[in-house]
Amino acid sequence: MRRSFYRLDCSDLDTLLEQLKKRGYSIFGPRILGNAIQWKPIDSLADLPKGHSVQLAPAQYRLQATQDEGLFQYPGALNSLKSIFHPPRQTITTIQKTNGDLDFHQEKPEAAKRAFLGVSACDLTALAALDKVLLGSGEVDEFYRANRADAFLIAVHCTQSAPTCFCASVAAGPRARTGYDIALTERITDDSHGFLAEAGSSLGTEMLEESNARPAPPEWIRQSTDATHRAAAAQTRAVNLPIARPVIESTFEHPRWEDTARRCLSCGNCTSVCPTCFCVNYEEHSSLDLTQAQRIRVWDSCFTHSFSYIHGGSIRLTPKSRYRQWLSHKLARWQDQFGVTGCVGCGRCIVWCPAGIDITEEFGVLEQAAAAVPVAGGTPHGH
Ligand code: SF4
Ligand code: SF4
Q: Which of 31, 76, 172, 205 could be disulfide-bonded to 344 (CB atoms 3.0-4.6 Å)?
């Protein structure tokens, strides 16, 4: 569709949220909770983290006050939309025992109209990846489909990058390209605070036109592109995805895996925060008086011992084999399996790894090692 660009004041954006509510949407956005910026239900722009950002580094997340009025001047929320569309716990079945009779209640996926304000480009790319896995690769996940079906996505282009971001190198940001209904660029000047808004769907156009949006000055479009280019250029971390497969194949027995595994606690933080990790397990619980039982789907992690349990034993017994599985799946095998990258460069695994293990640093070491080793079918660097 042909893109239309509009200008919005903060009050117009609040009007847009009100219009969405009138159409039955509940609104989610970033808000401060427990010293972190998280996706939560919001009522209006007043709930956003105005005048706040976060300082990110390996194993470090600090909320900090800023000097400006910005609403989206932080590099992504702590959690991603995965935690809403593919939640950490999902009840599947409840069994109630009454006077010896068993009553089975099967949980039904229910579509919900939800609008998300402030989705970053990397998280949009991650959603597209989850769509491939949970909707398009064989068995459809009906809970995910119901959660995803009526989502209205308002992206915000990132005009600043955190030191842990590397979305530019994996072509997942910082500018949102597709998958949104509206994309905003926040504009803060000495005497004004507003947004350039780009419609990405016919519903997006409709909502903008219902909210007092006016045509944007052409220079705003160029300024928005320049701002996201600057954010991309500021990224110091990178992963060279096209060579990930040969690099990992040629370094499969490299000592670096063991060195890193000595630091890895197998805690699974990296898989929990990753916007594309989708693995689940099923648990059964019963009440102490044995009158109720539940079957619950929970997030699983390839860092657990039990994850690779097959026929009487686990096949990945060491942290080394589990870390290697995770990194090689993220950067290489996802591409074989689903045709898209499993890593969108959000940097969350770097921030939330208590040991400060950095996927870009790890891949960089392997890349250097591979450069010295001839690889079947070509060299890792393609020359
Ligand atoms: S692997 Fe790390 S950087 Fe890549 S998408 Fe997952 S959490 Fe983000
Ligand atoms: S790499 Fe870090 S976050 Fe992931 S399991 Fe190991 S210690 Fe935990």
A: 172
> In this predicted structure, what is the pLDDT of residue 1?
55
Q: What is the pLDDT of residues 47-80, one digit of tens each?
A: 999 999 999 999 999 999 998 889 999 888 999 9
Please state the pTM of the whole predicted model: 0.94
Give one DSSP letter per residue of 159-211, joined into a string: SS--TT--GGGGT--SS--SS-SEEEEEEE-SS-EEEEEEE-SHHHHHHHHTT
Low-confidence ranges of the chain (pLDDT < 50): 377-383
Q: What angle do CA 44, 45, 50 make, to 5 degrees?
A: 145
Please name the residues in contact with 274: beta carbons below 8 A apart, sequence gap of 6 or more. Answer: 80, 82, 330, 346, 348, 349
- DSSP label of 107: P
Residue that has been written with the tokens 């689940």 in this structure: 280
Residue 330: helix, strand or coil by DSSP?
helix
What span, in angstroms and rounded, lies between the C-alpha atoms of 380 and 377?
Answer: 9
Residue nearest to atom 6 of ligand 1 (CA): 274
The reported pLDDT for the residue numbered 138 is 77
Taking CA atoms only, the protein residue closest to ligand 2 atom 6 is 264
Residue for token digits 């949980």? 107
Nearest CA to ligand 1 atom 4: 343
Query: Helix, strand or coil for residue 345?
Result: coil
Instruction: Give the bridge partners for 65, in sequence order.
Output: 52
Cα(274)–Cα(126) distance, integer angstroms: 9
Residue 381, pLDDT score:
41
122 ligand 1 Cβ < 6 A: no
Side-chain-facing half-sphere of 312: CA atoms under 13 Å: 0
Tell me the two tokens of residue 100.
């010896």
